[in-house]
Write a structure and sequence with these properties.
The chain is α+β, with helices and mostly antiparallel strands. 16% of the residues lie in helices and 35% in strands. The protein has 5 helices and 12 strands. A hairpin with a 6-residue loop joins strand 7 and strand 8. The longest helix has 9 residues. The protein starts with 13 loop residues before the first strand and ends with a helix.
Length: 190
């Protein structure tokens, strides 16, 4: 029997995304965003407030990067979520992390995170119920250490963080439970 829990956002897992953009002066700002999702083969949607420093920056530069946080960099990923660039001028610098300019868009690539999507601002969706930044992915880059023998990203090697809204915890991914477009094939024959 199920117990009623009330109104809670019960989607699990949620990605731990590091969104980064430059300000007008070329200074790096980054934030942790768990409310994001792929919304097309070359698009990503970020459901982030427009008052975030990173949001304001990417609206001005029309570009941003989205990195996947991993276990090895959990402390900085969490820091990017609890510190605000609106009040902390040296937020990125405090981490000691490194950023280089993307070769594809006017946005920083944070070197320490193993996977990054480099995006152009495609659309801002602003309705009564939603504020979303939609980015067109123009390149994805990954450290060789997270690639398999075929040159594809290995979830086990990536060791990506997911966010749990129930307990406010971070978990990692990696173990394959089955194959997509295959696990349910037996039911197609009935």
């Amino acid at each position: 029997m199920k117990k009623n829990l009330g109104v809670i956002p019960a989607v699990y897992p949620m990605p731990v995304l590091m969104v980064a953009a430059y300000d007008e002066g070329g200074k790096v700002n980054a934030m942790n965003a768990a409310w994001g999702m792929i919304c097309g083969m070359d698009k990503i949607a970020l459901f982030i407030d427009e008052d975030h420093k990173t949001t304001q920056n990417l609206l001005k530069t029309k570009a941003f990067t989205v990195s996947i946080a991993d276990r090895a960099h959990m402390d900085v990923a969490d820091f990017f979520g609890i510190a605000t660039g609106n009040k902390m001028e040296d937020k990125f610098e405090r981490t000691g992390y490194h950023a280089e300019k993307s070769a594809f868009v006017n946005a920083p690539v944070i070197a320490e995170f193993p996977l990054v999507m480099e995006c152009e601002l495609a659309e801002v969706v602003n309705t009564e119920n939603m504020y979303a930044i939609v980015g067109k992915i123009v390149n994805t880059a990954a450290d060789e250490s997270v690639l398999d023998d075929n040159g594809k990203v290995s979830p086990a090697k990536l060791d990506a963080l997911t966010f749990d809204q129930f307990q406010s915890g971070y978990y990692t991914t990696g173990e394959q439970a089955g194959k997509a477009w295959n696990a349910g094939k037996g039911l197609m024959k009935k």
